Amino acid sequence: DTAVSQTPKYLVTQMGNDKSIKCEQNLGHDTMYWYKQDSKKFLKIMFSYNNKELIINETVPNRFSPKSPDKAHLNLHINSLELGDSAVYFCASSQSSWGLNTEAFFGQGTRLTVV
Amino acid sequence: DQQVKQNSPSLSVQEGRISILNCDYTNSMFDYFLWYKKYPAEGPTFLISISSIKDKNEDGRFTVFLNKSAKHLSLHIVPSQPGDSAVYFCAAGGTSYGKLTFGQGTILTVHP
What is the arithmetic mean of pLDDT over A66-80? Predict the structure, then answer.
């Protein structure tokens, strides 16, 4: 009974393709995030949604478009994939986006490889 | 500009000994701090947190210490066990930020 689940776990695709990663949480949390773990291993926030509304967009190229159909889902669509997009992408959720309730629960990650 | 840094990429300790993982931050607006543990091919899982109004928080074998004047926090694991072998991330947040900022992680290996 996974709390935060994301699919697929692995994704290998060619440059220029468009791909999506899906994320769902069953914790009843209001806030969901996408993080990217880059080659230097830092976990960097990309987007944050609170109750389906975008609240954080951290200078991510507009080829990345998050979509939140409801507060339990936050999908990430990537257009025109580039080699530099290769990374591990983590979805996460938290009870709220403010204060001490920002403890985030993470999915298992999606390893994206662009060839 | 990395506001949260873990300067030791790896740490190796013997089972039963203390593991000390360190983390430094630069933003004085951060007011709470968390440690996450990550096994290969899994997402990070929350371990322990501390608010800036405290300088110590303990949970079983895990203790987090916060030194606000030095902008430094550390995680102590006593006694260390082989199952503690993982990557440990520290993270920091502020009540007005709406997000967590993570360090780059430290690989802990506990030898039997």
Answer: 94
